[in-house]
Specification:
This protein has two domains: 47 residues; 91 residues, Cupredoxins -  blue copper proteins (Immunoglobulin-like, Sandwich). Helix content is 26%, strand content 35%. Copper (II) ion (CU) binds next to loops.
């Protein structure tokens, strides 16, 4: 009996192929495949950053312009080795490639007062989606293959 006469196998093969196509073409909420450049104007004041959260995609180039509105402040990003110092009238700038995905705290790196330890924010580096889709497609085809070759005695 050839495979296409086997109803169970035909259903599994067709379902698997349809699921893979769905995984590849379904629009995801943040569909940016090509790396982007971000120019971020970051204001620092005692004791907060504005904005306090940043979201980019893995592979993006990020330039942060740090402007201080009152005293000397710094901006250090955990896990990225980015550090810069600014004081009023003397802004600082740093550029880096967001090559690691995950959530990274950024914090003031100049002791600026009582609440300095709480002067923090968060950088989110979202995984790049073509990779996510590839992982999904691989998983679906693995399950499909297992289903296809599974034999009940
Ligand atoms: Cu500080």
């Amino acid at each position: 009996m050839t495979w296409f006469h086997d109803r169970r196998r035909s259903i599994i093969a067709i379902t698997t192929i349809l699921l893979i196509i769905t995984a590849m073409i379904t629009p995801l909420p943040l569909t940016t495949s090509a790396p982007q450049s971000h120019n971020i104007e970051m204001n620092a004041r005692t004791f907060a950053f504005e904005p306090s959260t940043l979201t980019v995609h893995k592979g993006d180039t990020v330039t942060i312009h740090l402007e201080s509105l009152d005293a000397q402040h710094g901006l250090f990003i955990d896990g990225y080795n980015v550090d810069m110092h600014a004081e009023p009238g003397k802004s600082a700038q740093a550029t880096f490639v967001a090559d690691k995905d995950g959530k990274f705290k950024f914090r003031c790196s100049v002791t600026c007062g009582a609440l300095h330890p709480f002067m923090i924010g968060e950088l989110t580096v979202a995984p790049d989606f073509p990779f996510g889709r590839a992982v999904l497609a691989t998983l679906i085809s693995s399950f499909g293959t297992i289903g296809f070759f599974w034999r009940k005695e």
